[in-house]
User: Fold this.
Amino acid sequence: MRPKLLRLLTHLNSLALLVLALCLLTSWRLVQNRNPIDWIRSIAALGFAGKLAYVGILMLAIVFSPIPGTPIVVAAGAVWQPLTAAIYGTIGIFVGCLMAYFLGRTLGRSVIRSLTGKMLHLSTHRGELYLGWVVFITHLLPIAPFDLISYAAGMAGLSFGIYAIATLLGTIPCVFFLAYMGASFTVNLTVGLAIAAVFLILLVVLPFGVQRYNWFGIKDSIRIE
Assistant:
């Protein structure tokens, strides 16, 4: 790796670790409570600072994975306006994914494994554009492990531009879906249950299709240890 690129990645990695530390500092009291609704209600009372804490929690969920991000976004949609929950949720998840990407570029596999407990490998044998499509598709799915995908993309050396665009475009519809699903439960229970049913179908059908029929060729590009 070229010295200038290595220095840039080192600086970005240091910045990511600093932001992670700030997220830990601002949200450590919240993670003691395991109820996502209680988290959001607690931070909603803080006004704009609460929205920043919400962003920080989602960043923390991607990088460090102490809490699942999906129920947090759903709960935020139920407590806040869904558009607000979706916009700030997209920011938190996207920035968290970028941090994980840069950590994957600069840290060793053993360190990443200690952070996540698992290791995911992305193959570049079909080219970066194809791998970018894989990143985009996996970020569309609320059930996909965003942290493992981001770490693996960094370790695979996927172009930052391709990774960032694919991640953002995949994250936006996913987060908006979750936020509006949460909001629907407070407005119309029937609609909320219908959306939840679609979500459950995705949980079953998509993994089955990928495992059985190798949809999108994902099995050829992703390997989990």
